[in-house]
Every structure is written in C-alpha cells, then in structure tokens.
Amino acid sequence: MKQADVKKAGAAAPVKKQNIAGELSKLNKEELVSLLAGLANEIKEVEQALALKFADGDSEEGMQQYKKIIRASIKKYAERHGFVTYRNVPYAVGGAEKVLQKADGMAEKGNSLRAVEISLCVMHEMGELLQACDDSGGIVGGIIQECLALISQAVSQLANMPSKDQATIYQLLLKEAGDPSLEDWSDWQLSLLETAALLICTTEERQRWSFLIDQLEAEERGSSAYSNYFTEQAAELRYQVILKFDGGDAAQQYLRSNLAYTVFRQMAIEYAIENEQYEEALYLAEQGEKQDTMKRLPGLVNKWRGYRYDIYGLTHQLDLQIALAEQFVLSGEYGYYIRLKQLYDGDKWAQACNKLLNQLESESRGWVTDSLYTRVLVEENETERLMAYVRQSKGSIKDYYMYLLDDYAEEVYQLFTTLITEETAHSTNRKQYQKVCGVIRLLVKAGGGVHARKLIEQLQLAYPNRSALMDELEKVQLS
C-alpha cells in the first residue's frame, strides 16, 4: 500500500477544540445578549440557570422564581400523575440544590434573613415532594436537613444581625415549625424550635414560643405513633430557655422536677458529682436504675450502674466497686474486665480471675458473654480452659488454634481433621468446597501439613465423583 493510501486509511486528524471563552470575548454586548436570550428560549436549563443567576432574593418575585425553578425540576422528572420514582429523585431535586446554593451564598455574605427565607422556601417545597416521591435513599430528607443546618448557621451570626431581621426570622421559624406539612416530622419541628429559641428577646416572644411547643407536644401525644422522644426533646429545649432567661437556680429546679427524662437525670448526676455531692449523685443513679429496670431498658440500667461505679471510685468504696465491676463482666462488658483487673493487686488477681471464670462457666452464656469469656481465656493464658472450650465447639479451632499449639498440637490437628471431614460431608457445591479447603489451608498454616496431605488423600478416595471438590483440593498448597 502506498504512503498516500495509508494516510487515507488512518484516523481523521482531531478537530481543534474551540476556545469558547475567547470567541465570546470577541462579541459586543448586544451580540452576547442576543446569544444568551436565544439559548434561553431554546434550552430550558439555560433559562433556569439565568433566572437563578438574576433572581432578586429580596423580593417576593424573586422567591416565586425560586419556587418555579424547584417545581420545574420536579415536574420534568415526575411521572404522569406527578409521582417521582426512586431512580428519578436525584434528578428531580436538581432545582432545589441549585436554589440552596443561592441561600448558602447569602449566608456567606452575612445576609442571614435572605438565607433563612430561601432555605425555608426549599424546605417547604421538599416537604411537599416527600408526599409524592419514593425517598428510600433519603435524598429529599437530606436536603431538608441541609436547609435546617443552613438556617442554624445563619442564625448563629446574631452579633451582626439587625434586631428587625432577628424578629422577622423568629416569626418565620415559628410559622414553619407549626406548618401542617411538618406534622409527622418531629425532628424538623424541634430543630426549628431550637433555632428559634436563640432569637427570643422579649416576654411576648417567649410566650409565643412556649405556646407553640406546648401545642405541638399535645398534638404529638394525641398521635397514634406517639413516643416519649418529642416530649423529652421539648423538655430539654424548655430547660435551655429557662436557663437563658431565669438563671441557673430556676433551671435546676425545672431539671429536678423532670428526672423521669434520661437527659435530666444524667445532668443532675453529673452536676452532683462535679459539686462533690456524692450521696445525692448515688441516690439519683440508684433511682434511675430502679426506674429503668421496671421499664426493661437494659441500656439505661447499665448507664446508671456506670455512674454508681464511678461514684464508688470517687468515694474509695473499693469492695462495692469490685462487686459492681464483676456484675458488668458477667453480663459481657469487656471494658469492665480491664477495670476490674486494675482494682486488684497483682498477687490477688489470679485468685479473683479464677473465681470469675468459674462463674462464667457455670452460667448460661449468650454470644456477648461467650465472646468475653474466650477473650479473657486468651489474655490470661488459660490454655487448659480454652482447649476444653474448643473441644465443645469444634468450629472455634479456626479462631484459637494458634494459642493451643504449644501444649496441644496433636489434638489441634485431630480437631481440624474432624471438622474438615464433617464439613466436607455436608458440602454440595463449589463455594462450600472452597470454604472447606480454606480450613485445610489453616491446618497447613498451623504446622499440620502431614495431616493435611493424608486428609486430602482420604477425601479424594471418598468423593471421586465430586469434580468441583477434586478441583479445589488440587489447588491446596501443602508446603
């Protein structure tokens, strides 16, 4: 083939990429305006981008423009009846994300009022979308959380905010918190109320805030899905408002009258400990333990027991501290095993540990306590007990063989052989055969290469028709 033909047959030379910015810079103002206007008429996305760029956030017309952008994006990706499917949700919220960027820009410029107004606009539109989309991925809810975070950020700039703007934002937040669209979203209501509380300046504003939170709590209590969550969070917000306006003594009095709430009991205990009122702290912890034992809330029971442990330490009641630490260990709390060990002198720990292990062996153990038991055996070098455990639970040889080889090598190899033989007998597919061969490799790693070779030969004789097994056994390296 001639050189000219080769050139013709080759790929076409790449087209030189145009420098768009350079070409635009050559146009005069009228030409640029004409070009952009034409593109806006032809391409919806260009029209929206320009509308967002030039929207006046300080006017009602500007806010309407933001809503239009958000709704247009939703409409574009909604089905015939207006529902947005799971796969289309990320695209449907594109307009909202762009408008939220505008709010973020306002906050950065210190225009808190506009940032809040735009954020509330986005939040309200996303609340409507939640009723007509599959938000299994949490995308719409995530945008609402971003709105709330941005509102909180904007309000945090109180020092630089005109008092008139503070009052306006306060009214906007209360209005949104009480909006029926948030009726089933208590977390968002509470977030708005928490931010609004920062803006309270007058008795009238405080009364209005208190009236709304009381009203929302009453509605929550009347709901079929009522839980203590809203009530407890609302009580904590009230405490913050009382502390701000009425002082520490009034706040402490409110706290003491609401000890049924976990957060207040915890605060009361920590306050008592900080002020060395150990008898009071112990009483509060014990009462919390009784209360939550009756409610069958083991996590909270352990929280109050943890405070008791700390108080015993602060008051040098070593025997009580040891007894409580033992209770924790017997329930599977490894951290308290470490603490318990530190409470004993070195020569006394061996006897105490032996007693503790005997108790663990004599009681029925769940998986948490069982895990603690074997972990303690390893750390205390209790190989005889660990070997006895492995004999009862052959599968655990895979986890503990390395701790037993020095004293029980031959028995370890025999347990591996028995386990592999049994698992092979119950295996029926390649994935299960690969798992079996993984255990054979552990046997080799443990130094049982001779046993592994003999076992493989036995399996090859026993199951010659299992081609997948034969194939996997061939892959095992014996050295």
List the keywords.
479 residues; disordered N terminus
Structure in words:
By secondary structure, this protein is mostly helical. The protein is 76% helix and 0% strand. Residues 1-17 have low confidence and may be disordered.
Order of helices and strands: HHHHHHHHHHHHHHHHHHHHHHHHHH
What is the helical fraction, as a range of percent?
A: over 70%
Mean pLDDT across every amino acid position? 89
Structural class: mainly alpha
Strand content: under 5%
Count of alpha and pi helical runs = 26
What is the radius of gyration computed over CA atoms, rounded to a whole number of angstroms?
A: 35 Å
Summarize the structure.
The chain is mainly α. Helix content is 76%, strand content 0%. It has helices at residues 3-9, 20-25, 29-42, 44-54, 60-77, 89-92, 94-108, 112-130, 139-155, 163-177, 186-197, 203-221, 228-246, 248-256, 262-274, 278-294, 298-314, 318-330, 334-343, 346-362, 367-379, 383-392, 397-425, 430-445, 449-462, 467-474.
Secondary structure layout:
Layout: H1 3-9, H2 20-25, H3 29-42, H4 44-54, H5 60-77, H6 89-92, H7 94-108, H8 112-130, H9 139-155, H10 163-177, H11 186-197, H12 203-221, H13 228-246, H14 248-256, H15 262-274, H16 278-294, H17 298-314, H18 318-330, H19 334-343, H20 346-362, H21 367-379, H22 383-392, H23 397-425, H24 430-445, H25 449-462, H26 467-474
Helix pairs in contact: 3-4, 5-7, 5-8, 7-8, 7-9, 8-9, 8-10, 9-11, 10-11, 11-12, 11-13, 12-13, 13-14, 15-16, 15-17, 16-17, 17-18, 18-19, 22-23, 23-24, 23-25, 24-25, 24-26
